[in-house]
Specification:
Length: 368
């Protein structure tokens, strides 16, 4: 494959409901959509899932745009690629910037799937025809969060994740368990605690959570290992895992029992599959996280989550969870708490160009 043209769409779309985590609240989502066209006329789309501010990782939409324009796309337009798994090595001289890299790699995978006339799930090694999915409830008042859980349960979601932070944890989970004693429930701290909070975190054991996600800082592999020895709730690492090497370190140290895989955070689908395979070899369950993304990334997450070791329902909610109207057709929808995995190229999601242009603030074109 030789990429002859790359187009960046800088987009902004309002959220149906403002989303709050321990690091902040946002009401609209700024993103970058990448469109690649090869010399044979095949087209692929990817999505850069960095946020507007460096809350989640150091990357932002602005930094990703800089790296895409000045480094990644110039290299891509000079290269010849036979398979998407060659993209990471093409960019290995550029440090980190994994979300920008993942956006390009996602577009290359999409283009490659169309060339091969196969579904993305098939090419990644997926084994499932449908996947169970969960939903995330952002920080809000306890009554509001309880109402949201009830609403999403009625819509068919089978696993519920609530955002927590100090002073918004024990009482929240106590009330949830009082109202919904049997739902699969997990808590996401987004690094809001330190090891000094161990007694507070031990109190959460009584709620029989599926896991507590990223309680400590992203670099605290040793402290997470110490914490896991002192609490019964399984620890899941999210922000700590940027690569296969990070997963190896975490598993070797005993820092977690579960790994959250997000293609944007780890640099793309290729690295995601490698982390999945390593975790499967070491009996570590994985699940696919979400980034409040639009349909392009969401559809690629559906394909990834069809791999066999994704045994926990992921944050792959329906398009309507965040958007009045998504940028793909058909939109991601739930049926009986599950999302259907496209099994052929004909059943794959397509980008709604009209909707894409409606939310585009700036369009930048690069040619070979």
């Amino acid at each position: 494959m030789e990429i002859k043209k790359a187009t960046l769409y800088i987009t902004e779309m309002p959220l149906v409901i403002p989303f709050a985590a321990s690091y902040g609240t946002y009401e609209k989502r700024e993103s970058i959509v990448i469109e690649l066209e090869d010399t044979d006329g095949y087209i692929g789309f990817g999505e850069v899932v960095a946020f507007s501010e460096p809350w989640y990782t150091e990357e932002t939409v602005k930094t990703a745009l800089h790296v895409l324009q000045d480094f990644l796309l110039p290299d891509l337009l000079k290269a010849e690629i036979s398979h998407p798994n060659e993209v990471p090595s093409l960019f290995q001289h550029i440090k980190r910037n994994r979300m920008a890299k993942a956006g390009i790699e996602g577009a290359v995978w999409d283009l490659y799937a169309k060339r091969q006339k196969k579904s993305l799930a098939t090419l990644l090694g997926g084994t499932k025809s449908e996947i169970e999915v969960g939903v995330v409830i952002g920080i809000n008042t306890i009554p509001t969060m309880l109402k949201q859980i009830e609403k999403y349960a009625e819509e068919g979601y089978e696993r519920f994740k609530v955002k927590i932070k100090p002073e918004h944890d024990y009482e929240l989970l106590k009330e949830i368990r009082k109202e919904f004693p049997h739902i699969p429930l997990m808590a996401d701290a987004n690094s809001a605690y330190t090891l000094a909070d161990v007694e507070k975190l031990k109190r959460l054991d009584e709620f029989q959570l599926m896991m507590i996600e990223q309680p400590l800082a992203d670099y605290d592999f040793l402290d997470h290992a110490q914490l896991q020895k002192r609490i019964e709730t399984p620890i899941c690492l999210d922000e700590s895992i940027h690569s296969l090497e990070d997963a190896r370190v975490a598993i070797t140290l005993g820092s977690c029992q579960i790994v959250n895989i997000k293609p944007g955070r780890v640099g793309g689908l290729t690295e995601s599959v490698q982390i999945h395979n390593y975790c499967m070899e070491h009996n570590i369950s994985v699940w696919c996280g979400g980034m409040v993304e639009m349909g392009i990334s969401r559809a690629q997450n559906v394909a990834l989550a069809s791999l066999p070791n994704f045994t926990i329902p992921g944050d792959i909610s329906a398009s309507s969870r965040h958007w009045e109207k998504d940028i793909i057709s058909p939109e991601v929808t739930l049926k009986g708490g599950k999302v259907i995995v496209p099994q052929s190229i004909d059943s794959e999601y397509e980008v709604d160009r009209g909707r894409l242009m409606e939310i585009t603030k700036q369009r930048i074109v690069f040619e070979r």
